[in-house]
Specification:
The protein is mainly alpha-helical. The protein has six helices and no strands.
C-alpha cells in the first residue's frame, strides 16, 4: 500500500526493511561471541589425555586362507574380531560382500580393493555359511 506520490516498494525492499533489525541483532551476537571467545581465560583449554583400552580378548579364527592375514592387518585395526562372531553363521557370500563393501565405502576403512575378495572369502568360510565346506576341504 502506498500513499499518493510515493513509489511502491519492491517485495525485496519490503523484506529488507523488516529484517534489518533482525540482521543487526544477529551481527551484534556474532561480534559479541567473537570478542568473548578470544578473551583470556574465557575458553577452557584443551588438554591431551591418554586412555588405555582393555586388551582385546577375541582374536580372528586362524585359517590358511589368504584373507586371514589381510583381515588381521586391515579389519581388526578398526574393530574387534568379536564383530565377526556376532554375525549370523548362516550369512552367505553376498552378505559378507556387503559387510566388507560397507566398511570401505561408508566407514572409510583403509581396505585395498584387490584384498576385498580374499577377505570376503575368509569371512564366509570362517564365520559364514561356507564353514562346513571349508572344513571338508581340509
Amino acid at each position: 500500500m502506498t500513499r499518493a506520490g510515493e513509489q511502491p516498494l519492491h517485495a525485496c525492499a519490503q523484506h529488507r526493511q523488516r529484517t534489518l533489525p533482525q540482521l543487526a541483532l544477529t551481527g551484534m551476537m556474532v561480534l559479541l561471541t567473537l570478542l568473548f571467545a578470544g578473551a583470556p581465560g574465557s575458553a577452557a583449554k584443551a588438554e591431551a589425555r591418554e586412555i588405555s583400552l582393555p586388551p582385546d580378548g577375541v582374536q580372528l579364527k586362524p585359517a590358511a586362507l589368504p584373507g586371514y592375514e589381510k583381515a588381521r592387518r586391515q579389519c581388526v585395526a578398526c574393530h574387534s574380531a568379536e564383530y565377526m562372531q556376532y554375525q549370523p553363521s548362516s550369512a552367505a557370500r553376498p552378505y559378507w560382500e556387503g559387510v566388507v563393501t560397507r566398511m570401505k565405502k561408508i566407514f572409510s576403512a583403509p581396505l585395498d580393493e584387490a584384498d576385498m575378495p580374499d577377505i570376503v572369502d575368509y569371512l564366509v568360510k570362517t564365520y559364514g555359511n561356507e564353514q562346513a565346506q571349508a572344513q571338508h576341504a581340509k
